[in-house]
Amino acid sequence: MIRTAVAFTVITLSLASASPVAAAPPADIDATVAGLMKSGGTPGLALGVVEHGHTVLAKGYGVRRLGAEGPVDAETLFQIGSTTKAFTTAALALLVEEGKIGWDDRVVDHLPDFQMYDPWVTREFTIRDLVTHRSGLGLGAGDLTFVPRSTITRAEIVKAMRWLKPQTSFRTAFAYDNLLYVVAGVVVERVSGQSWEDFVRARLLRPMGMTATTTDEPSRFLNADRAQGHARLGPPFRGEGAESVLDEAKGLGPSVAPAGGIMSNADEMCRWIAVQLAHGALPDGKTRLWSEASAREMWSIVTPTTAPPAQGPLAEAAPQFSGYALGWFVQDYRGHRIIWHAGGTLGFLTRVVLIPEADTGFVIFQNSEDGQVLGALQDILLDHYLKLAPIDWAARFQEAHRLSTARAEAAFGKAASPAHPAPPSLPASGYAGDYKDPWYGGMAVRAAGDTLSVAFKRTPGMVAALTPYTGDTFIARWQDPTIEPAYVTFTVTPDGKIERARLKAVSPLADFSFDYQDLDFTPAITDH
Prior knowledge:
Among the domains are: 29-82 and 227-252 and 261-407, Beta-lactamase (3-Layer(aba) Sandwich); 428-523, Lipocalin, CATH 2.40.128.50. The strands form four sheets. Strands 2-1-12-11-10-9-8-7 form an eight-stranded antiparallel β-sheet, with helices on both faces. An eight-stranded antiparallel β-sheet has the order 19-18-17-16-15-14-13-20. It contains 14 helices and 20 strands. 27% of the residues lie in helices and 21% in strands. The chain has 528 residues and is an alpha+beta fold.
């Protein structure tokens, strides 16, 4: 989970060349990390740094789980979220080099059952389109098929794509998505004859010596040295609870592993970073996982992205250009080109950053959703390795966090007390019935006297009482407090029938994967 325009043909950064002499990590890195974790309330963090092909730091801080003694170390497994996407594009690159696929092959030539909403788009959609977020779908479209967890299969995800309506024209705008990376994983499976999990493990992880890194859930549960996710569950964040250790069994399901299912540690992700910086070469200098040509391909921008405005406490980090390549974001940081990707699953955040001009890269994991900690540490390390004048990023990110939290609190206050409340149009029984969205599936609304409840049939724990808000809009606060509260609005026809039901997240801090706005429920049985 992640975001950032400017169209350009070729940009050459003159500011680029750093000395090949190792800079070494900041001398006060331990104190810096400790201070950030304390101010952000982060239970555990791991950091790995690679300079010129060598791991110079791989270390853990804090604890794997609140209330337990197990410390985080360099071998502690963390969910790496969407930084998995670069592994999926590397897997595709191996198949390209073997001549089994081409980046610009049509997807339907390898997956005949693949279909987008528009027939022309279906026919023209390429493998490159699968991994560059230019499909025309909206941000995070369809993510509720697996967030926070679902029973859906990869084959069902492929079939669901045809029902997701585009928000922009094909190949004209950037909108981050996950489901098309699942489709990319299915391409790997169909072409290689192996599951995505087995292919990535055999062709990427094992050659790099990443033996503890997992691509499947059973393997990760075998390792006791793994972090537990943590989240703040009370408003303005989500739900009605307090800071909590999350149930790791509620993480992303196996169906979406190609988009975000790998679990790794600081020591082994440093090996991945070293191979990336070496453009596919293994440390022995003789063996390559992929060619220089594939390395250039994966780092070349395909989809320009919109750089955030240079204002507010983080203005000095705002890029002048940014875009998405194949599984990587490419942008400048204070005038220097970086290659990076973020990852977020419930209770975890990860950031992988490559600085080609300094031949340096680093990975940061944390077992909480406090983004200001990870963001500040990233920019502190970038300033250090690019030899830039330091900025107090800890204070800047704290202020940015305060401002976004205040906006969310205002939204929750509005939810608690609407400006112009109105009574519902119908008695509770008038809203009750079974509803269906073409890509998600079923939703059940039930009445008991004057009260209403709702249950999403494919998502465990997505059950809630519907609290009247105003008119035909209700608020659902789910039994599973990790799921974002939502407004549920029914459209009532003049003759008192329900035409449809739409949803919207209550909090402006809601992760885009809670893509309620993409749902369009209509009655499955119209005579209720």
